[in-house]
Write a structure and sequence with these properties.
Elements: H1 2-10, H2 14-113, E1 117-121, E2 124-128, H3 130-144, H4 148-161, H5 168-181, H6 185-198, H7 205-218, H8 222-235, H9 240-252
Antiparallel strand pairs: 1-2
Helix pairs in contact: 3-4, 4-5, 5-6, 5-7, 6-7, 7-8, 7-9, 8-9
Length: 253
Amino acid sequence: MMKQALLTLRHATLPQLVVAGLLASSAISAHAALFGDDEARRAIIELRQRADSLQQSQEQTRRSLLDLQSQIEALKVDQAKLRGQNEQLMRDSSELQRGQKELAKGFDERLRQFEPISVNVDGIEFTADRSEQQDFEQALGLFRSGKFPEAGQAFAAFLRQWPKSGYTSSVRFWLGNSQYATRDYKNAIANFRSVLTNAPMHVRAPEAALSIANCQVELKDTKAARKTLEDLLQAYPNSEAAGIAKTKLAALK
């Protein structure tokens, strides 16, 4: 083929040679243009692929950011819940501690009700139960308010409830006075004598002796009253009751 082409060109005229050259040049240019388009096409395809890959990467990154944002919001919600639970636990703990303190305080108060306490009545110091002290003070309060029958009942009940109480001598003295106020002179004398017999050095003993004499006077037993007053002067000469006894003795003669 090549030899034939050369033979053909060899015998061709000048115009034919010019036309052949132009055709050959055009073919070469077309081939070059075709080669350039393929390279550009491949470059465009690669750019598109890179753009698509970048877009996919951005989309994935966006989804990852959205997921991360959702997780952060969820963590914030959980944190708020935990904070609320912690605050509630702290309030519950405070309430529990306050309740425990109140229970302990109430228990201590109830326990103290059963613990003996030290009291001092009419110059005599001794131990007594709290309820024992309350019973005495309640009965004495009735007497001081002028409720003599009620006071007498309260003092008598005290003696039954607390037979070995350190208050006994004082209780019998006030019981005698309650009975004197209600004109129960015989029982009053018995309680006043109990003070003189069982606690002759009691601070109320001189008053008890004088009260016996007063009861005897009310009972019209002048002789017994005089004897009681004389004994009072002998036993308690320096007492305030002794001064009153002297006056009464003078009046009885």
